[in-house]
Design brief:
The chain has 380 residues and is of the alpha/beta class. It has 3 domains: 38 residues, no CATH class; 212 residues, 3-Layer(aba) Sandwich (Rossmann fold), CATH 3.40.50; 109 residues, NAD(P)-binding Rossmann-like Domain (Rossmann fold, 3-Layer(aba) Sandwich), CATH 3.40.50.720. The protein is built from 13 helices and 13 strands. The strands form 2 sheets. A 7-stranded mixed β-sheet has the order 3-2-1-4-5-7-6, sandwiched between helices. Helix 7 links the parallel strand 4 and strand 5. The longest helix is centred in the first third of the chain and has 27 residues. It is elongated and about 95 Å long. It starts with a helix and ends in a 5-residue tail after the last strand. The N terminus is likely disordered.
Length: 380
Amino acid sequence: MPIAPVEVLEAAGLESCAGPARGVALGAALDERLFVQMLGPVYDEVRDFKRTRMAWPRLAQLAALARAVARLGVPGDYAEFGTWRGGSLYLVAETWRRLEQNRDLIAFDSFAGLPPTAARDGAALHQGQFADVDVNEVRAFFASRGLSRVHLVQGWFQQTIGALSGRTLALAHIDCDTHDSTVAVLGRVWEALAPGGFLVVDDYAHPDCPGVTIAVEEFFARREEVVWQTPMPESATAPGLNCSCWVRKRGGREANEAARAVGAAHDPGILRARLVELTAQVCAARGLRRIALYGAGRHTESILPGPWPAAGVQVVAILDDHAAASRPHVAGVPVVRPEALPVPVDAVVVSSDRFEDVIATRAAAVFGPRGVPVLKLYGR
């Protein structure tokens, strides 16, 4: 049986909540416990500015998207712009290694801090910020973990973006902080992103990084994809602490399956088959094991033998007001006039999509006095 939310919380050692604010807090606490349970040792290696400035919710999101592209079969690699000491890169690499994914991970960074900033980047950023990193130490770190599919690309993005040429990306993470750097990579990353792939942009809506928000809004204003701001539990009390957004590129297997599902939902043949199946199940549930179909046209041909035998329901006759000796059977079932039905039946099912109401009225007049129920496939 389903487990109630309160039981979930109690099983995790959390108290049940009262009110939406408390619910959000407890939900975040449960999410954090699940994240730590899955990737706790990896998180311990990178947290608290050891290898990343990102808090756990954004790392958990990256790990979830890395699992998603693997599960959905989205082709391609991972690219990260602004990797610093490699914390988020390590998290994705370790997630894919556990899933036995044969994908490359390409990390772009100047490893010399931020480039010159502009007025639209705000006053909090400055040239050379985040230069407290040694590219050789980062390389040695990944080598020591046996992550040979991690590739570091050093230099300014405008000069190194060409390393993406010929690659397809399943997941991309842009953490450039400034407007011009974000613009420099956004178009090329989007072009390389596979249909159904995910893009995460860090610092979107961050009060100290207004240039990133401008770049993202300008780029996607010309596209149909939706930019989703990542909900972060700390944002209410510390605005900007966990600002981020994600976008999924249109297309891909899941989108194709959704399109087929929408088409199927409007396909008359599929709808008819489903309604006939449901009617057969209703007959079986009500103990109506022997039925007659009223109507001997193409509709009846299309639903025989149909789902009736599988439901344990036997179609013993087909009723036709104009039954003729020239057509004694339909799909092996005898065709007779309603008044001449030779065997007792538990129910009569109207078999017509165009004249259902007319035939139902006629069937009720003939079989109502006998106490035989008349069922419709399409109407009530």
